[in-house]
Amino acid sequence: MPTRELGPFDWRASVITMGGVKWDTQLSDEDVVALMHRALELGVNTFDTAHGYGEGESERKLGIALEGIRERVWLNTKTMDRTYDGAMKQMEISLKRLRTDAVDLMFVHSVDNEDDYRQIMAPNSVLKAMEEMRDAGRVRHIGVSGHWVKELMARLIQEYPFEAVLFPVGLFNRAYGYSFVDTVLPIARERSMAVLGMKVYAAGRVKHTRSVQPYLRYSLNLPIDTAVLGMDDLAQLEENVRIAKSSPPPLTDEEQQNLIPEALAVTRSFDSGEFSWVSGYPAP
Question: What global pTM score does this model have?
Answer without folding.
Answer: 0.93
